[in-house]
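Handout, section B. The chain below has 706 residues.
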Amino acid sequence: MQETYKTRVRSLGREGPWRRERQPTPVVSPGEPHGQRSLVGCSPWGRRESDTTEATWRAGVDLQCRVSFSCTASDVPEGAENFGVSGSSGVKIFMVYDPARVTEPTGRAYWPLDASVEVVISVDAASKALNDLKVKISYFGQPARGALGHSVLYLTGADISLDADTGRTGNVKRSQADKERWRWGPEGYGAVLLVNCDRDSLRSVGTDLTDTQLASRDDLQDMSPVVLTCDAPDALFESYKLVLNVPPSDSKRMRVFCARGGNSLLDYEQVLGPQHLSYAVARQPGERKIGLYVEGLSFPDANFLGLVSLSVSLVDTKTLPEVPLFTDTVAFRVAPWIMTPNTQPPLELYVCSVLDSHGPNAQFLSDMSDLALKASCKLMICPRVENRNDRWIQDEMEFGYTEAPHKAFPVVFDSPRNRGLKDFPYKRILGPDFGYVTRESQSTAVSGLDSFGNLDVSPPVVVEGKEYPLGRILIGSCLPRSGGRRMAKVVRDFLGAQRVQAPLEVYSDWLSVGHVDEFLTFVPTSDQKGFRLLLASPSACLKLFQKKKEEGYGEAAQFDGLEHQVKRSINEMLADRRLRNDNLYAQRCIDWNREVLKRELGLTEHDIVDIPQLFSLKDAYAEAFFPDMVNMVVLGRHLGIPKPFGPLINGRCCLEEEVRSLLEPLGLHCTFIDDYYAYHKLLGEIHCGSNVRRKPFPFKWWHVVP
């Protein structure tokens, strides 16, 4: 009578590239006849031990579970020298051996019992019933005699996996990429999470990310779908269970909803998230696919790199403690918040209706309405009841967006400034498919540099071969090691943590208000470069005035046509030593920035246009002497420029004429708008008093290589 011998089963894990369609998990099920091995096998993709054991994590392209049958003296019947292997339909058998020690048998020969010979098996499909697959090893002595004994391994195939949109196509597909890792670049892979920071339901009090119950089915579109495949005989789950897990550090960064059954909002249950680290999946009989929806709860920041993960484990419930037999993990990167430069097409122009000692700003609003109409841009007027007479809407907020392969939506970044407009972004901008984010400084007082007029972003640039396809964020600051004013660290940290628009600090602390928009802006052009950097230029202004003096127009006066304003002739301004010294200082400050911007944005002198402008110093800080023309609003090719009220020569403002001659050859249209009393006299201009939501980049941020 032939005997059946025990077999030692050993998992070898992954050692090679992924299959495009991974195969089900081979599982050795309990309940075989006495004397036959009873084990549950490894995941087809192994169980990760640590990032340092990478060599033990790969499997051949066609191998899903590597099982080695090793024999000891007690395992093998006496006299056995060779063995043969056979398996039922659906089981693939491979031999792994050292050709330096073992010669592959031919014909009816068998494999030698050698420690270097391993049997590798894989299962093609999920089993229909327990133990419906088997592998038999027969032991032989002399070839002429029959088998001396057998080892039999009964198997149950189970298809267990987590799948997300790791291919970044907008659809969930089984991927040949490594789901546990996230890779940047056009050849990269890895799933993306949106921060669910909009408010899809009017019943919600805050942003949707604060909801532990689904408030609207539209909210599902802001989440990343994940498919849990659990195809196996129902009887298997009498002894084993599926458990979803998130690491403790990730639980406050993400939330997972499980879709069970109908279309009611109650059918979507939160199963993971803050204070919920694991969830035993309630698999129904016959259920092969379970839908999950994952949302991000916070953008990347100083203490959060933006990476989170979700895992499913097959757990043996017969043991105490319960043992996870394998784990499949999907990594996600939380989508960043992205700024849009002036080169992106405008969608909405925001301005405020205000009232002061000079009356309402009705004419300014009318002029801005005309400009928006020319640019085919929607005008949004914030009424006084909502702005509480705070006109500086650029300083209060910055429009950006966030994007995943399946969806993008705008997100307003609310500054820590918190003046009259402090509630406007949250109460009026936040809504369906319009997100909200803010950062508040808890340790330091808010300064003027914390306003978002002190925040800009360049168009896409290439710097010494390094590409910045989404541009670089510009932050106004003090000189290095000077101890001056800087934007709040909490805001700087947030911007840097997004990783896709590498922030650059420039020098703005020389200005009284201290904002970058007081001396620079970008405009779109139709040439190969695609844009120009405009810099305020005292030297260009003084040269222009000197030229007009030499042409005989020295008595033409600045501020001509303005009531209640002292007029200054060109001769007087050129003879004013203090004014000239103030502007020599201002020019040195701008020149320092010029060199930084050329170096850090890869610009040449040809890429820069000098806009004539004068400044005057008050308490060692500079203010615009006349309306600051670089502080303009850019709506595509249409520019809304502060009217400078420069000297009139032949009935035309020489400053306006100079700016037109510089910008109109670039295909730009200049509209000069009077903001003198409503904005300039309050130390701001058109850009400070407006805000523009722009079209997102067509370039996908996950293609960036930081």
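Note. The CA atoms of residues 386 and 424 lie 7 Å apart. Compare this with the example in section A.
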